[in-house]
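User: I'll paste a sequence; please echo it back and then give the predicted structure.

Assistant: Echoing your sequence first, then the prediction.
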Amino acid sequence: MSDSAHTGPTVDASGTEVDVVIVGGGPAGLSAALNLGRARASVVVVDAGRPRNAATLRSHGFLTRDGIPPLELRKLARAELAAYRNVRVFDRTAVSGLLSTDSADGMRFVVALQGRGPGIPPAVAARSVLIATGLRETLPGIPSLRAYYGVTIFSCAACDAWELQDRSLALIGETTDLAARARLIARWTDRLTVFTNGSDAVDTVEEAELTASGIVVERRAIDDLEGERGAVSAVRLADGERVEIEGGFVRPQWHPALDFVTALDLERDRFGNLVTDRSGRTSVTGVYAAGDAASPGPQQLIVAAGQGARAAAVIVHDSIGVRTAH
């Protein structure tokens, strides 16, 4: 990968210098912070405090923590980090810019901050930066969808389908991978209806394949969802017809949260995610990515945490010139 970076405008980071700045306080960022702290690196974690899974009541598939509320998992992780004096967490703080520098003392980056908490400096200088900001998501424009999201409507089959198995389920989406997601969800139920909400997300060949598998494809536009206290009970179509369901999944449109990296020439894929090698190195030396900020795979906390731990090990090895693939 290229070693090039663009030098940006000067930002005063005097007095605040660390080995690594981690942008993002989710499972990838916190896991990396723990492992970097244990490697005696000085670390700052910048956490805006807006996790994508904030609406989720229970997280699943995390070994020893199956069913834990995601906010509780973050609380436990933060308590563990408190034991490492070389790790600091800047709460309610956003990164407004990531700039390269040619400092003689090895500080290759300046991370400009916008903090709402007390004692947040305007910037931090760092030898390396790990981007673990995850994704932003946009849900289909269904009025009451948010009322059920994270309770009986979910986005991750691997995370939440077990609790919905053998029920009448909906899959709602407007993206071209909807048929593939339907085939995945069908592992857990034989009563699945795919709602394209008036879009052409499922083509005629895919519809025939899904129908042959017992999956119903409903192309009419959705008016709204029905239910009480987060428990969805029906999809109401624009013509007034109701399709009763007992839960379901939605396919959001995901967008990388990377507005702050525009000053660096970081390679992106066609979806705007950061391109990395298998160890989390981006196209700019000293900048790494973990979790969904890089090309996303399974949307699970344990996967993101594992990627953060691997990136931490690679950062430590790279800092002493020990090249490793990990």
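Confidence is low (pLDDT under 50) at residues 1-11. The first strand starts at residue 17 and ends at 23.
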